[in-house]
Amino acid sequence: MSTVRVLVGTRKGAFVLTADGRRERWDVSGPHFGGWEIYHLKGSPADPNRLYASQSSGWFGQIVQRSSDGGKTWETVDNKFVYDGVPGTHQWYDGTPHPWEFKRVWHFEPSLNDPDTVYAGVEDAAMFRTTDGGQTWHELPGLRGHGSGRFWAPGAGGLGLHTILLDPKNAQRMFIAISAAGAFRTDDGGATWAPINKGLKSEGIPNPTAEVGHCVHRIAMHRSRPDVLFMQKHWDVMRTDDAGDSWREVSGNLPTDFGFVIDVHSHEPETIYVVPIKSDSEHYPPDGKLRVYRSRVGGNEWEPLTNGLPQHDCYINVLRDAMAVDTLDSCGVYFGTTGGQVYASADAGEHWSAIVQNLPPVLSVEVQTLQ
Amino acid sequence: MIRVVLPAHLRTLARVNGEVTVDVDGPVTPRAILDALEETYPVLRGTIRDHVTLKRRPFLRFFACEEDLSHDPPDTVLPKAVATGDEPFLVIGAMAGG
Questions:
Q1: Percent of chain A with pLDDT over 70
Q2: Residue A155: its pLDDT value, please?
Q3: Does residue B69 fall inside a structural domain?
């Protein structure tokens, strides 16, 4: 029988949850790296027991941990992220130029076919790559070197590169997203990048349809259709069918189109999930009801999924990297909350239960389906 | 032999218990101690001072002999009691948390 492994990053450590394919009884391992912020941990598709974890602290900076046995044991690898050349400046909150400064790794994206190759999205926004299992990290400078880099400005949470999507059909193509610069695409393996924000409209920036400056919260893709992307922007749920060349809004009947997470059903490319959050000044669900919304037609028409989720007095948040799906026949959907719960549905969202509660605030959730 | 006291999280990271000791050739300065410490425990590189600038991380402090040495230049010669091992060089994490 298959096994499911859920990798949970929290404000105070990492947790590894495992269950068999029935997904009814969960074993909780952790905290790993107790007391440290674990922004993200993720396994290699090429070698699922190879995991990478971003461990950081306001006191001690960045550490990178690597496991070769599915999270049972860990070893530190290189934590030196140095911008290529003279870093230059980006725009600060007050509009003044501000030197690029490395703060932390927000997201690791292991290569689809090489466990030693991993992409790292960092704050201040840049993309790094290792090809030796984390022993050394090198920036892909073409992203920051895009002419707009000096105009990028941080969102309230920092200038973080938080989303990295690798095109499974084209090894040269990748998509990334930065808060608050927007989405970018490379078609040459990361050497050069172009903004892909046409169609986005953000009232909170001076030019609502600017080429860059949009606060993209998360982008999701189904591996069978890499030209179709779904985006949870600060406000607005968006969709592109042409690899980001143009976007259109698919918020439809959502109770609010602010939120952070978005993901795609593992077997139904038109079935997508979001967790609406009331507003950008009230980071909790509307009406105190935690509801996942699902569209089975690629957006615009949404249905609330509430069975097993708290429907009163719930004021948690679900952060951008904290939703994932498994690939079992009945697609499992998982998300973590700032209240320390990880909720799971083994039937594509029809029924939910908390598979662990009272963890520190959850920053990220990733799922591995193991045979 | 120089005695160094590390914060708990860095002891865990370095997989040590209690004080650690390092040897320094030449003048005993914060830079020389940290160089020796990072040579012995490479995992500590970047955690006490920046990889590139080698500046102390903002939320850490260096104490010795009941003095805050954090703002002294890194090549300042430390008190003799540190060099002889009678007093430790302390790396302190800023207290925080309510």
A1: 100
A2: 84
A3: yes
In chain A, which residues have their Cβ closer than 8 Å to the Cβ of B16? none
Q: Where are the domains of chain A?
A: 3-370
Domain of B38, CATH number, reads 3.10.20.30
Q: Which residues does A18 contact at the CB level (< 8 Å), separation at least 6?
A: A3, A4, A5, A6, A26, A27, A29
Domain span at residue B81 reads: 2-93
Do the beta carbons of residue A38 and residue A9 sit within 8 Å? yes
Calpha distance A334→A346 (Å, rounded): 9
Question: Which of A58, A60, A82 lies at the smallest CB-CB distance from B10?
Answer: A60
Residue B82 domain flag: yes
Count CB neighbours of A72 within 10 A: 12
Number of domains in chain B: 1
Q: What pLDDT digit, counting tens, does each position of B39-88 carry? A: 999 999 999 999 999 999 999 999 999 999 999 999 999 999 999 999 99
Does B98 map to a domain?
no
Average pLDDT value for residue range A202-230: 95
B94: nearest CA partner in chain A? A59
Predicted TM-score (pTM) of the model is: 0.96
Distance from CA of A105 to the nearest CA of B (A): 14
- pLDDT above 90 (res B96): no
ipTM for the whole predicted complex goes beyond 0.90: yes
Q: With respect to CATH, is domain A3-370 assigned 3.40.50.920?
A: no
- Neighbouring-strand partners of residue A233: A216
